[in-house]
Specification:
The complex is a heterodimer of chains A (149) and B (419). With 149 residues, chain A is mainly beta. Chain A contains one helix and 14 strands. A four-stranded antiparallel sheet of chain A has the order 4-3-6-8, with no helix packed on it. Chain A has a three-stranded antiparallel sheet with strand order 1-2-5, with no helix packed on it. Chain A has a three-stranded antiparallel sheet with strand order 9-10-13, with no helix packed on it. Chain B has two helices and 28 strands. Chain B has helices at residues 2-17, 370-418; strands spanning 20-26, 29-33, 39-47, 54-61, 68-70, 74-77, 83-91, 101-111, 125-136, 143-145, 148-150, 157-166, 172-183, 188-193, 197-199, 204-212, 218-228, 231-241, 246-253, 261-270, 276-286, 292-297, 301-303, 307-316, 323-333, 336-346, 351-355, 368-369. In chain B, strands 21, 22, 23, 25, 26 and 27 form a six-stranded antiparallel sheet that branches. In chain B, β25 and β26 form a beta hairpin. The radius of gyration of chain B is 34 Å and the shape is extended. The model of chain B is unreliable at 6-18 and 356-365 (pLDDT under 50). The chains are: A mainly beta (149), B alpha+beta (419). Chains A and B meet through α1, β3, β4, β5 and β7 of A and α1, β1, β8, β9 and β16 of B.
């Protein structure tokens, strides 16, 4: 009886140690749209917008220049992976930023999402769709930017 | 990253040169699922992108505007302020419970225009919106869906992705889609079927299918039928084969001399089934700090369908130092663009330009799920214990029988001796 329990404890310790040594540990830090990666034993990051990891993207860490990558705003499920183990899933949130800049006669989308910008002159007179970084010549009216997708 | 820096550089330049304003808000949207009597604070931030003295007014609008209370409605920014963290209180009315679907409100942040010396307001005004989306689940099963088509290139493999949200109160056991692809004359070109998945109540998944593109570049129609637990939804969407309508074939630089004007010959191919007007190339070169150090544009040219054309751009290299620089070439047409990352190696008599691949790719990530490993570990231990328990019981029974046999034998021998 005693021997059997000792064997089981030894088995758990051996397997646990192996998992600890080989586990793809990933710490992620989000700054704007950039996700920084601090990882151990990890070859790739698996990224999906779905908790079931359907249609996942694989980001090879050896192809990244500075241990970071840029993604669109949204909620993502992430797990580290190496050739042996896929790690537990984590959730990261890239906040959308709605931003408008104006310079005399040009309106520019300075945020990180596509905007539907309505133009008002007492009443609604039209709308413009602006992608991030895109600018448009405008008149002296009121412009309201809201996230489209 | 470079793209954002580029935008920021341009914008900072604009701020310096002209009379400018800027305002931001984050998040652009907060989504919550309806719960009876839900009352909670929602955080958001107003961004003072311009680092200026500014006064921002917050207002509410939309269906749920009366269900929201702002803690502050006027924000005064100092030049030292980056952003202001704020929150609002939302108390959902029970009345919307009977109306499944989307209910929304908008928090509008508007920068008050500055007065001129004569007391009048001039110039345009900007406002940004943070949306609140509240979803009321429908009884039973109902879904929200869309279609994205990726990598639809001639002779390539296109990926059809259908993101599906289950807005119902019940989970969906099995969901799949069939996609029929038609050209604009309604001739069916292909039928593909996605994988089958399940979705929890309020959950999200993506159905996907591959298509070997054996048609010419152009516009096509996808007719999609989604089948889930005995129900069907149909929708259709146009998509284009030949996303990279313009292909950047090569960049030639002859007789380069550092410090002089270099002539760049950018060969571009129009692969689309129609002519393109006003096509121009834009080469961006970044310095070591990822700032744009050169922004070179070619003249606009028309490119006939299925043909190649050379776009000519000139770069004044006065003041440019020898070394390696990151760059990007964009070819723009009708508000769209094709781009390619580059590496420029500049020496006294040569400008060598190399293309760089993309960082994100597929094909890795094999390995066993950690959850599966832990489940296997528990299963092994469980099996070992059950086996041991069965073995132990058998062993005890055998021992009992043996002991009984020994006792009986001993008694028998004693009886024989006595007799």
């Amino acid at each position: 009886m005693k021997k059997f329990i000792i064997v089981q404890i030894a088995f758990i310790l051996i397997v646990g140690s192996m998992i600890y040594v080989m586990y793809p540990n990933v710490e992620l830090s989000v700054t704007g749209n950039v996700v920084g990666i601090d990882s151990v034993n990890t070859n790739a990051i698996i990224l999906s917008k779905n908790p079931d990891f359907s249609n996942a993207r694989y980001i090879r860490l050896d192809e990244l220049e500075d241990s970071s990558f840029e993604i669109e705003s949204g909620e993502y499920y992430v797990r580290g992976s190496n050739r042996l183990i896929k790690g537990f899933q984590k959730k990261i949130l890239i906040e959308s930023e709605v931003g408008l800049g104006i310079n005399n006669s040009k309106l520019i989308n300075i945020g990180n999402v596509k905007l539907n910008v309505t133009e008002e002159e007492g009443q609604l007179v039209g709308h413009i769709v602006l992608g991030p970084g895109v600018e448009e010549l405008i008149e002296d009216n009121k412009f309201i930017g809201r996230q489209i997708e | 990253m470079k793209y954002r820096n580029f935008i920021l550089t341009i914008f900072v330049f604009l701020l310096v040169v002209g009379n400018a304003a800027a305002l931001g808000i984050t998040p652009g949207r907060t989504t919550i699922n309806y719960e009876n009597g839900l009352e909670q604070d929602v955080a958001f931030s107003i961004l003072n992108n311009e680092h200026n003295n500014a006064q921002v007014v917050l207002t509410l609008q939309g269906e749920l505007a009366d269900s929201i209370t702002l803690y502050e409605s006027i924000i005064n920014f100092e030049p030292s302020d980056d952003a202001r963290q704020l929150k609002y209180r939302v108390k959902l009315p029970n009345s919307i419970a009977l109306e499944p679907g989307l209910h929304s409100a908008e928090i509008v942040a508007m920068e008050l225009p500055k007065k001129n010396a004569d007391g009048t307001y001039v110039g345009a005004t900007i406002a940004v919106v943070s949306q609140l989306h509240v979803y009321v689940a429908c009884p039973g099963k109902c879904i929200e869906y869309d279609l994205s088509v990726l990598d639809a290139e001639e002779n390539g493999t296109a990926t059809f992705i259908i993101p599906v949200l289950n807005r119902g109160e019940l989970g969906i056991g099995s969901i799949r889609a069939v996609i029929d692809i038609y050209n604009l004359d309604y001739d069916k070109k292909a039928t593909i079927t996605t994988d089958t998945r399940e979705i929890t109540a309020g959950g999200r998944t993506e159905l996907s299918a591959k298509w070997d593109v054996d048609v010419n570049p152009g516009n096509y129609l996808a007719k999609v039928s989604i089948f889930y637990d005995g129900e069907t939804e149909n929708f259709e969407k146009h998509f284009t084969v030949g996303k990279n309508v313009l292909s950047i074939e090569s960049i030639l630089v002859n007789n380069f001399k550092l410090g002089q004007i270099a002539k760049l010959q950018i060969l571009v191919e129009n692969k689309f089934n129609q002519d393109l007007e006003d096509v121009f190339a834009n080469l961006l070169v970044y310095n070591k700090n990822d700032q744009v150090m050169a922004d070179i544009r070619s003249a606009s040219e028309p490119i006939p369908s299925q043909s190649k054309k050379e776009l000519i751009a000139y770069w004044d290299t006065v003041g440019v130092k020898k070394g390696e620089y990151d760059g990007k070439i964009l070819v723009k047409y009708n508000g769209k663009s094709a781009d390619k990352n580059l590496l420029l190696k500049i020496s006294q008599n040569e400008l060598a330009i190399f293309g760089i691949g993309y960082a994100i790719s597929s094909g890795v990530g094999e390995g066993i799920d950690i959850t599966a490993i832990l489940i296997a570990l528990v299963a092994i231990l469980l099996l070992a214990n059950i086996s041991w328990f069965i073995f132990f019981r058998k062993f005890i029974r055998k021992s009992d029988k043996y002991n009984k046999f020994r006792k009986d034998k001993k008694k028998l021998l004693e009886n024989i001796k006595l007799k």
